[in-house]
What does this fold into?
Amino acid sequence: MNTTIMLFLLQDGITNGAIYALLGLALVLVFAVTRVILIPQGEFVTYGALSYAMLATGQVPGTARLAVAMGVVAFGLDLYAARRALRLKPVSRSAALNIVLPAAILALTYALAGPKTPIAVNIVLSLLIVAVIGLFLYRIAFQPLAHTSVLVLLIASVGCHLALQGLGLVFFGAEGLRGPALSNAAVTLGPLRFTGQSLAVYGLTIAFIVGLWLFFGFTLMGKALRATAVNRLGARLVGIRTTLSGQIAFLLASVIGAISGILIVPITTLYYDTGFLIGLKGFIAAIIGGLVSYPLTAVAALVVGCVEAFSSFYASNFKEVIVFTLIIPVLLLRSLAAPAVEEEKD
Amino acid sequence: MSALLKVGDAHVAYGKVEAVRSVSLEVADNEIVTIIGANGAGKTTLLNAIMGILPLKGFAAFAGADMASLDIEDRVAAGLSLVPEHRELFGTMNVEDNLQLGAFRIPKAIAAKSFERVYTLFPRLKERRKQLAGTLSGGEQQMLAMGRALMGAPKLLMLDEPSLGLAPIIVADIFRTIGELRAAGVSVLLVEQNAQAALKIADRAYVMELGEFVLNGPASDIATNARVAASYLGFTHEGESAI
It folds into this structure.
């Protein structure tokens, strides 16, 4: 192998690794705050990517209608939960969030969708759609289970993944889609050619990491999320609602997933079930980071990306096998380093 | 004086085992009330149930409003605050962040005043404000737990065993601070095993045994009660008492 190929593979690995880093960070965030291992993270990727790709062809994606349907269910759950003391203020707030918001997004999508819609508008629409889907997913599937064990939450998570993947097949069909690139510019630096798309991947990943760092380090809401992750009872005792923390975590995760998808879909063709595999690689990075460490997860994600790039060059048949094998020595080491911990009760 | 907290015929159970049976209690505005009793009498259980952490069967009202349909967060917003036995601090966050989160439910302008008040009550916390809560000493952690609860400007502060595991000189410090809270308009419901110290600062006291209140009255009467003196004050000799 010569240096040019090596540089090329590294570049490829870092581009993919950046995406895995985003997804891994979202997984760590959701797990820390809600104890949910977010398997449907991959579906947020697919939904974001394919909604964007469909909007680019001028069609209204089915995800916009799914958001409305999920909103209606979420509103129903809110009403049921408050059935003993129905007060106007919480009910109208719930209606605004669960009914009016997704309906407005659907209307906006119908109004704006067309073959000539600017890329930026399509991106915003897809992000909005996936964001509310993430929010409602928490309300419908996880909020009622918030007090149960990690295992129950994991099973619910697998269920959500299967349901969303099936719906993805309905909305987007079995054939893959590809979206338009964010920019066609390119910079050549020695032997390497950086496309505008890969620069956008780097830029947005760094922006997100800095943004999350600022959010968690300096805003009251970010600190409240961290507090929920550190000590759930302590957080409740100062009046931080665990449901609010969970909603924000899911909102962030779905937006991060959708952004990742929109960044990938101009580079590779995505199918309704591709997101799962991409999400799993973020998951590997998160596991290497022990599901707690953000910096370790980001570094691990870059390693995963590079291992993937090199193994697809040397042994492309075994690409996925090699990547997923990374997890075994890590789990072994972790199990040796840390004694078995009993699951927290609350 | 009107009752700030009113609990009537309360039962709290863990499954089939009733840890608290038919307990009634009142805390008035600007009053310090203590519940004393041996380990396992049900004191912590009762406080947790009043806070909404455990389900309470019976009647519980705060500031004139029935609390049956309120969860923990609603009770915090209403002005009820608990400093739990295990303190439940945010260990990996610094002192200042812990305090800031204590003011999560109140407007920023008021939070700034709360900071001032808490730092005046506990100057030690101001010195340690950039230190991680988990690395503080036991006494400082107790001060932080109380400070965090006070940041939310509660009407009633419930303290669960604030003296547990602390050196006598720090216990004295903490009890002096509890006494000062009254001047700041905060009522206190204090659960303690250190009966002598608790009875010194309290206006009224309840004595709890095996999940029931067996005695109640003005703290000075309870302190001189023969039965209480024998069971709770008997083994602290004059010379070596905590306070």
The radius of gyration of chain A is 20 Å. Chain A has one domain: 3-335.
